[in-house]
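Chapter review: from sequence to fold.
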Amino acid sequence: MNRFFAAFALLLLASNPLRAETVTFPASDGLTITADVSRGSSDTVIVLFHMAGASRGEYQEIAPVLNRMGYTTLAVDQRSGRSFGGVRNETAARSGKRPFLAAIPDLKAAAAYARQNLGARKVGVVGSSYSASLVLVLAGQDRGFADAVMSFSPGEYFPDRSLVRTSAANIAVPVFITAARSEATQWQPISEIIGGQATGFIPRGAGKHGATALLTSARDEYWAALRNFLKTNLPAQ
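The C-alpha cell string follows.
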C-alpha cells in the first residue's frame, strides 16, 4: 500500500508542475524582459535561456524537475526568439526580430535579477543552442555573471567565428557541456580551452540538440549527468 501511495504522489508531481509566476524587468537598454519564476526550497537559482526561435516555454517541463530538486528557476524570454510549446516570446514581441548577439543584455539582466530580486545565494545559468554559446561568452567576459554554467549544444554561431573559444579561455567557474552525439566535435574544442573547469557529456544514443535533450527518450542519461554536475558544483542549499 505504501508503494502505491508513493507512486501516486510521484504521478501527481509529474502531472501538476509547480505554478510559475510571470515577472518583468528591464534590460540595460530599457527593453522589458518577461520571465517565469518557479520557487524551489533553496536560495540557489538556475536561470534558463532558450534556443533560437523559441521562448521561455522551452522549460515548461524542465523547470519543475529542477524545482523539485530544490532550485528556484527563472525561465527567460530573450529578444531573439518567437515561441515554444504554445508560449509566445513576449520579449521578442516587444523588440521585433533581432540577431542572436542582441540578446546579451537580456542574459545579463536576468542573472542580475536572480541575485537582486530572488535573493539568490548562488546563480547557475542554462543555455540552449545559441544561448548555450552566449552563456559561455558572458561567463568568460564577466566572472560575476554566474557561479556555474550549463551549456546545451554550444557552437560558433556568431559572425566572429572564434568569439566563444576566445571568451571561454577566461572562464573560471564550473561548466557542464553537452549536445547531441553528432555535435560533440562542435563543443569539444571549447571544452578543451576551458580546461579543468569543464565537464563534458556525450550521450550513448543520438541525443538531441539543445536543452530539449532533457525531454527526449534519452532524457534519463542527460538528467543523470546534469544531476551529478549540480550535486558537485551547484548544490541546492
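Two observations follow directly from the output. The first helix runs from residue 2 to 15. The chain has eight helices and ten strands.
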